[in-house]
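Course assignment 3, question 2. Fill in each field.
Student: A.L.
Task: Predict the tertiary structure for the chain below.
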Amino acid sequence: MLFETHAHLNAKEFDEDREEVIARARENGVSTIVNIGFNAETIPSCMELAKTYDFIYAVVGWHPQDAKDMTDEHLEWIEELSRDPKVVGLGEMGLDYYWDTSPKDVQAEVFRKQIRLARKLDLPIIIHNRDAHQDVLTILKEEKAAEVGGIMHCFSGSWETAKQALDMNFYISFGGPLTFKNAKQPKEVAAKVPLDRLLIETDCPYLTPHPFRGKRNESGYVRYVCEEMANIRGLSYEEMAQITAENARRLFRLQP
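Answer field:
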């Protein structure tokens, strides 16, 4: 019933019990998982996971923190991998002004190259945006990202930012921080996003929801995000699970 739109189940944090974590997700009602490979190290294991489990799909791309390491050969590799039917999008891509690991101009160029590739391949894009709201929106507009749309992953911006993203054919996805008691702005934005543009995720092993905050996150915990979203919108858990799953299948062009 639940569609988990953003996981990193190939992360080293799951090396000891990955199969059990995936089994727990299924027990918690997760029917589909989109797993993200975002650099030279994580893309191969992401693809392997998608080939191992029929309900796990892959998104591949280049994270802004690793932008300085991306070559044209890497971009060609991503394009080649995208022909695999288990690859349903490109990313996560974008800008990260919090971690000073790649120069801003390099991040922007890598971001632009990936948007152009996504338009060439007609695949949705998954956006990583940390402390860079206006620059992300500007690049999305300039590179005509509305042609493919995608996901504003683990959204943390204002309603004004969300509106601009919605106007460019993007879905707004919320993760564990939505469940935090002090998450005033995310809750306000989640209350306003059109129901047909809402998505849920974990970003596991990071951003663990209440009541497990501070511990390792896992895909089964997406149920807590769904519960919070249902409360915010005045819907039942089952209704919210169905709505967000239908939205994700539409975006990724997956049959129920």
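Instructor remarks: The chain has one domain: 2-252. Residues 205 and 217 are 4 Å apart (CA to CA).
Grade: pending
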